[in-house]
Design a protein that fits this description.
Elements: H1 10-27, H2 30-48, H3 60-108, H4 117-128, E1 132-137, E2 150-153, H5 158-170, E3 187-192, E4 197-203, H6 210-259, H7 261-276, H8 283-315, E5 323-325, H9 327-341, E6 347-351, E7 358-360, H10 362-378, E8 386-393, E9 396-402, H11 432-437, H12 445-455, E10 459-464, E11 470-477
């Protein structure tokens, strides 16, 4: 303005002054901008307002000009400062809203929210710039403060730890700006769910700041809701498992009461006849009764073994005793036992040459094949053959039991492998009477077979045969057999 003094009059110099003060207000803090405006107005009066070189004002219009100029500059500085504060507040609100959204998405997709406790601590530290510690319940709230019942992140002294437990139990925030214990130097914020708290966080050395407090509480509340949701999901699973276990027990008892009654009655009747009328019976009648007792007892034994085996497999309490086994020996042993149980039935076996050794539990795999063969004999006509087929298919060996029975309806293709399901619908309507008439058993045999296949790393599937009947196919993975030792000794 001193350079422009010779070219501009006082009014134009005043406008230049206002322009510079507005530009200064865009960058300088409000107090500095107002102070600079007042000092500059005094300097303007000294340098440019007649009489120059003095603070006195010669004309009233000059005084009005000077006052209007200074007032306008101060008002502009204050307005710009207010807009700057509002802009910063808006930016902070947008950033906090984005943080809440991202935090909500993170917790929504988390299977276990406890693994994100460190993320909550980091978010609160970034928000406040203060030290943060937090604890969250692993499961239920203990009757007394128990360090093993919570997950603790950050460092908390004894007083802070006691405050965290107090905040957790009361489900109420504490500290500056809250409704409780405002004299505390820290914020204690509960992780609130619906009507309960699942944890608490402490933010040390804070002052009363309602917006920051509200945002910090919102972050904690989202963690609380996620923890409560995870806890509810765990409880739901436990309740469902208990209900399923109860249903299995009830169904098992009903099945035992129904399916065990007939063989037991047969055994009791045959044994009673042998005991009470042995002298009156001929040798052939005694042998027939003894055979009946043996067959029904064997049937009861297989039903009991299947039921107990299924319980062990489902509970994960069964340890496999695997070894290298020959498929030819396994099939031979299983067929020999099956022919003893059903000497009049036609049983065939087809095995490919050069089959690899199987890494399996021979007892369990024999039980699988026994169940499949018994199932095929049970659901196929007396004159229909049952075939056992063993093939090498790439990385698997397939053990299949095939029959020419009525088949299974497509709707039951997977349901037959469920416990206590016995394929009530045949694939062919004309075979319904056969299916209904040949349904003894508890209905766990195929469920046991699939569980045995799964624990061996394989699978059991059902395939309908082209000209009627079923093919139950067990696919077992092929593993590299150990090399056989080479005898290097020369013959004597």
């Amino acid at each position: 303005m001193m350079l422009l003094d010779r070219h501009l009059d006082l009014a134009n110099l005043a406008l230049t002054f206002v322009l510079t003060s507005v530009l200064a207000a865009l960058w300088l803090p409000a107090w500095l901008s107002v102070g600079a405006t007042i000092v500059s107005a005094l300097a303007f009066n000294w340098l440019f307002v007649p009489p120059r070189g003095a603070f006195s004002i010669g004309l009233h219009q000059h005084a009005l000009l000077l006052l209007a100029m200074a007032a306008l500059s101060v008002i502009v500085a204050l307005l710009v400062s207010r807009l700057r504060r509002q802009s910063l507040a808006l930016q902070g609100a947008v950033a906090r809203a984005d943080q809440l959204r991202h935090w909500s998405e993170t917790l929504r997709d988390a299977a276990d929210p406890l693994v994100h406790m460190g993320d909550l601590q980091d978010a609160l530290m970034v928000l406040t710039g203060k030290a943060v510690a937090a604890l969250a319940l692993k499961d239920q709230l203990p009757a007394t403060d128990d360090r093993a019942a919570v997950v603790l992140t950050g460092t908390a002294d004894a007083d802070q730890l006691a405050g965290l437990w107090h905040c957790l139990r009361r489900n109420q925030s504490m500290g500056p700006g809250t409704a409780s214990h405002r004299e505390l130097p820290a914020w204690y914020l509960p992780m609130q769910g619906r009507g309960t708290s699942r944890g608490a966080a402490v933010i040390d050395d804070v002052d009363e700041d309602p917006p920051v407090l509200a945002h910090a509480q919102a972050l904690c509340n989202q963690m609380g809701v996620a923890l409560q949701r995870a806890s509810a999901a765990r409880e739901e699973v436990q309740v469902r498992e208990r209900a399923q276990a109860q249903e299995v027990r009830n169904t098992l008892l009903a099945a035992i009461a129904h399916d065990y009654r007939t063989p037991l009655a047969t055994i009791v009747g045959a044994a009673s006849s042998l005991h009470e009328q042995s002298a009156r019976l001929g040798a052939e009648q005694r042998a027939r009764l003894a055979s009946t007792v043996l067959q029904e007892a064997s049937r009861l034994s297989r039903m009991t073994d299947n039921t107990l085996q299924l319980a062990r497999l489902d509970a994960g309490a069964l340890s496999l005793r695997c070894d290298w086994e020959s498929a030819e020996e396994l099939i031979g042993t299983v067929l020999r036992r099956a022919r003893e149980r059903a000497p009049r039935r036609s049983l065939r076996a087809r095995l490919e040459p050069d089959l690899p050794l199987l890494w399996c539990d021979a007892i369990l795999l024999s039980q699988l094949l026994d169940n499949l063969i018994d199932n095929a004999l049970k659901y196929s006509p007396e004159n229909a053959p049952v075939e056992v087929l063993v093939r090498h298919l790439g990385e698997h060996v397939m053990l299949a039991v095939r029959d020419r029975g009525p088949g299974i309806a497509p709707a039951w293709k997977e349901r037959v492998f469920q416990v206590f399901q016995r394929g009530a619908e045949a694939a062919d309507a004309r075979a319904s009477s056969l299916v209904q008439a040949s349904r003894p058993g508890v209905g766990v045999g195929l469920a046991v077979c699939r569980s045995i296949a799964l624990v061996h790393g394989g699978e059991l599937r059902l395939r309908a045969r082209g000209h009627g009947g079923c093919s139950f196919e067990c696919l077992l993975p092929v593993k590299d057999a150990p090399a056989q030792p080479i005898d290097t000794e020369s013959p004597p």
